[in-house]
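Slide 14.
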Amino acid sequence: MEWQSLLSEIYTALHADSRRLAMMGARALVDMYMNDAVGDIGGFDRKLAQLVTAGLLGDQDKKILIAALEAGHAAAHRGYLPEADQVSHVMDIVENLLQKHTLTSSAEALNRHTPSRQLLQTKT
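Slide 15: predicted structure.
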């Protein structure tokens, strides 16, 4: 999956204290996630709205994700150099998004393999 490769590059940037590059990478990773989830249907706002409509994000999740995206936009377009704790917040948000995706797939697989409950027949 391309996500894993980009995430590895983001961690490499973090270890080199390349905070702007890490922020730009995190922004790109969210964009990749959104394209995979709802398609390349336009800009970030449109994709976020579609994620909410599709039930993949709640309204609060959207607000949280927007904060991370805005930090990435600022790093990419406005020369923003975030502090280490700000990068950490963005990474927490992005990792949570990816974890939620992974856990959804894991839960679906678990449900497919878990035997269903058998109803007891009552004697009358």
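Speaker note: The radius of gyration is 19 Å.
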